[in-house]
Amino acid sequence: MRGFFTVGSRRLSYLDFGGSGTPLLALHGHYNEASAFAPLAEALAPRWRVIALDQRGHGASDRAESYERDDYVADVAAFHRHLQVGPAAVLGHSLGGVNAYQYAGRHADRVTALIVEDIGAVVDCDWSFTTSLPRHAPFRHALASALGATAPYLECSFRRSKDGWGFSFDIDDTVASQKALNGDHWKDWVSVSCPTLLIRGTRSDELAAGHAREMIARRAGQARLAELPAGHVVHHDAQAQFAAAVSAFLSGPD
Q1: 38 within 8 A of 17, measured Cβ to Cβ
Q2: Model pLDDT for residues 199-219, shown as the tens digit of each residue
């Protein structure tokens, strides 16, 4: 079910994959939207009810004038309040991962457990891929062809318009968001107090193994690391293993 709520003058969208399970709030990365979590929602049902936000400028949510860190965190807080589900587990990939741990660090009473997928406490994002994306293509298959091997990772965001086929996100907005994502976020990471699972793809070009281990060390006793055979988008490359790792973590200690 798709729902909407407003933050100021902007409308944000989300997908509630339904069921009577315990809520798990999910935050996607750049180039994606809430629908990217459909396979995870299916795998975790009925124990968990995944509710995924189309973050500002993505999916069916409105574009925004600003994509700064505080803007995203405020959106997550408004999303959580709107759902009226009480304290909940939060999962985030990449951009969504930083948003998730910043939200958890700043609103400790609202987050019961945290899953961060393949993003570090220090981010140095390269937006050259973003600026190389085709803005339009005459047909869906032409857009997919232009993207090559990366098409499966972006196809949930394909949209048809009067100009042909493009994306549900704006390329210039994405660059602005990536620039604002860069920085040292150690203060937020170490301020998280809830149980945390950091998931890293062993072929990731975003989160280095050494940095991931340091993140766990700085949260000694509160965070654990799972490394799965995948690239940066672990939930896509290793769907079953990712869902199993999330389910095992959320189910509590061994």
Answers
A1: yes
A2: 999 999 999 999 999 999 999
